[in-house]
Amino acid sequence: MPTGDDIAAEPPPIVRRERKLLLIVLTAMGAGIGLATIFVPAAGILALTMPPLVVISLFRARRWARLAAELDYRVCTHCTYQIEPAATRCAECGCDFDFAVAAEQWKSVAPRA
Fold this sequence. Notes:
Number of domains: 1
Largest sheet: none
Structural class: mainly alpha
Strand content: under 5%
Helix content: 55-70%
Order of helices and strands: HHHH
Radius of gyration: 18 Å
């Protein structure tokens, strides 16, 4: 079982899931573009959609981190639901909530000033 220090060094689970999904989508698109260019030379236009996907993913993670900072880091790291000050469990998804760990995870994806 990872300790609080190990978990705090990583981004929140919702950000990790988004990054994995982005990697899968980009890999699939890359393979599709490679095959499509063999049969349809104009299919290289699909490659133009890859950079916006990466940018959108980065902006979403930073938006979540800004939201968490505005709410004093009382935002679930699994579903981004606002946690009540006295709560130890997310009312939306039921995951345990540790304020110190959540704050460190959100700070890890916050834009650097």
